[in-house]
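The data are set out underneath:

___
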Amino acid sequence: MRLSVRRLLPPSALTIASVVLTGCFSSAEAGRAGPEGGRIRVAMMQPPRSGLSPLSDDAFKLSRWSAAETLVKLDADGDARPALATGWTQHSRSWTFTVRDGVTFHDGTRLTAEAIVNSLTRAATASPKPRILDGVDLTAKADGNRVVVTTPVEDPLLPQRLSSPQLSILAAKAYRGKTVDPVGAGTGPFELTKVDGTLSASLDRYDGYWGGRAKAAGIDVRFVPDGTARAAALRSGEADIVEAVPVSQAAVLDQELITEVPMPRTNTLYLNTGNGVFKDASLRAAARAAIDAESIVEGVYEGRADVAEGLLGPALPWAADLRAPVRRGKAGDPSGKTITIGTFTDRAELPEVAATVQQQLQKAGFEVKLDVRQYANIESDALAGAFDAFILSRATVLDSGDPAAYLYSDFASDGSFNISQLSDTAVDRALHKAAEAAAGDRRRKAVSAAEAAVLSTDAAVPLLHERVIQGDAAGVVGAVHDPRERELVTRDTYVK
């Protein structure tokens, strides 16, 4: 039987939330032009943090609005496909990209190899660098209508890296000293025309778009951090598309208006293999056997998450079919063993997840203490191995669209985020093989083998894969439900 824990708000709270959005979208913004052609009103969760600079995480907003584009894009499997580049070839440490003809920036200037080199060079030499280039050095040079990108060592994932919105290609006018201003400087079907700090942004259809005219006249964005207010905007008709509807609000909305999108994010119980109780593999196996992930999904997430079968979830459509069998260790007797589990408050569900895991492990015989703090105050202790176990919501696909980087950072002996303190030669071999494999089926199989190697150690017990809830008004056509959160409104999106 499905357990549904609905957190209903009183009518007064809903009224207050509606007021937050009232007047945010003007009557002009709400105008429609027949079956297509009107403007799309979007309520987004997070305001810009860096003035919409593409060298920051704000780049993903530009991508979701189809304002800025990259040399390549990713398909559902994470493979690179043409965008501003029509093709590419690899020669040892260099990749050569052919520039698409007939593309203009929103300021009317033409896309050239030199313009691409300018954008890539600005990103590669920025301080700090965009996250996608952490630990990666690259140089770019123009060669006619081609761009040659070179790295110090062979990089099989370079095209995937260049798909990151943080490496968007902008017109020369965008770069002013150390700042980057994307207004009127992209190549997408919508031109960013106005930004009002952390309150709003406006975009108009760019009729010169190389991929064909957009169906909507423009996009009007409001940044609404309060989740209750975002849900109220969908219910009242104040917004056409709403990002990240809270689980607590989903139950009170018309279920026809919301879509649950699997995210490449896994909630995992990391067990400390370096010292303490879980240095004993049999006790790690006992902890794994005691966990009932389904009750966590139903009780904490109200059924709006997926029980984890592995570290990689349904946001990676190939993961389930390629999942390799895992050899499980025999469970020992945990009676009387005292452990401390750490987690953080920044993600609202995690303390409740920790409390449920505490109960399950106590039922198995462990004595369990919890240490719950803000993430900024607990991360260093977690990385230092101060806890017997740690519960973390972790992105499994980073900016390149490839899970090998996550697996390596979290489970390699020299991984930078090795909370489990894992040092296992078989795991290291599998991770190195995955990191060096060429992109495509070969790499996906190697990643699956590495996942199995990690799970066989019981250093990590995957609990669930998160979903994000997107709201689309009844008249919305063609809004994208993207697990990677790179697309939302495209050339084909409009409101009836």
Notes: The CA atoms of residues 272 and 420 lie 4 Å apart. Residues 1-20, 27-35 have pLDDT under 50 and may be disordered. The first helix runs from residue 11 to 21.
